[in-house]
Amino acid sequence: MIRVNADVVAGTVSSPWTWEPRPDVWVLMATLGLAYWWSLARLRPRLPDAPPMPSVAQQGRFALGVIVLWLAVDWPMDLLGDDYLFSAHMVQFLLITMIAVPLFVVGIPTWMWCELTHPVRGVIRIVNRAPVALLLFQAVLVGTHLPSVVDLYASNSFVHFSLHALWVVAAGIFWLPILGKEPFVKPLQPPAKIVYLIAATIIPTVPASFLTWTETAFYEPYANAPRLWGISPVLDLQLAGLVMKLGGGLILWSFIVAIFARWAAEETRPDSNSPSATTGSNERLRDRAT
Predict the structure, then answer these.
(1) What digits encode the pLDDT tens for the residues 16-67?
(2) 66, 33 Cβ separation under 8 angstroms
(3) Which of 17, 105, 178, 252 has the fewest CB atoms nearer than 10 Å to its CB?
(4) DSSP H stretches of helix in the chain
(5) Has residue 289 got a pLDDT over 80?
(6) If 0-12 CB within 10 Å is exposed, 13-18 middle and 19+ buried, where does residue 286 land?
(7) Cα gap 117→109, rounded to integer Å
(8) Structural domain boundaries of the chain?
(9) What's the whole-model pTM score?
């Protein structure tokens, strides 16, 4: 995950298909899994009126998120995205921000969010406001794909790791207003969620269109990289633009359709406006979150 292959950048390696171990990635994935298990097995019983265990489905979503993140940052995807194809780099971005992180958000139970993020609750209150979360994520999307930043990404291990971490954090902030739950965050109402996600599809259209119609290979590390499958540097950028526009748009619009369908179904229920009971455990979680 934090390795940058200088030999490939220099053009002395012609194939990315020779397996190479990534122990840093394996340690990171194991740490995520162990931290989740520790929270369920050790932290949860220490809480007042220990909250219930997350469902098997919820635990499965977290595990799937770890798997998707692992596929995005381990060999061969990380090598392809770092040293060969910018389009593979864009696939990495979507796997991390649009698939792995949403799975983490829904796979981590609310009480765990409250406990593990208690020291930074003030920051979370600020960034969880929908306009702030939306603009922050869009700024990270655009800013981390500026040519000067990509040059550093391809040549500096610390920048490489830091950008991956930034993608995870920014995506988490972006998805919390949609997928988060009280008392950790106050999620948007369904109509606001739809507007929020539609707005999220607009800004990426600008860089995606620029990439799709470019005639210049302006990312020097990828322009100088060994070619794979006959893909030219310009075609590589055009494919990256299509991945950003079509892949990201498909995921966002899938969420929009699902939210609208659920909202419509809830509105047609006779008891859709009845108040729900608030449990004592939830009240304690709310106190802890504030």
Answers:
(1) 888 888 899 999 999 999 999 999 999 899 888 888 899 999 999 999 999 9
(2) yes
(3) 17
(4) 6-9, 23-38, 44-46, 56-73, 77-83, 86-94, 101-107, 110-116, 121-127, 130-143, 147-155, 157-179, 190-202, 205-212, 220-223, 233-242, 248-267, 280-289
(5) no
(6) middle
(7) 12
(8) 6-267
(9) 0.85
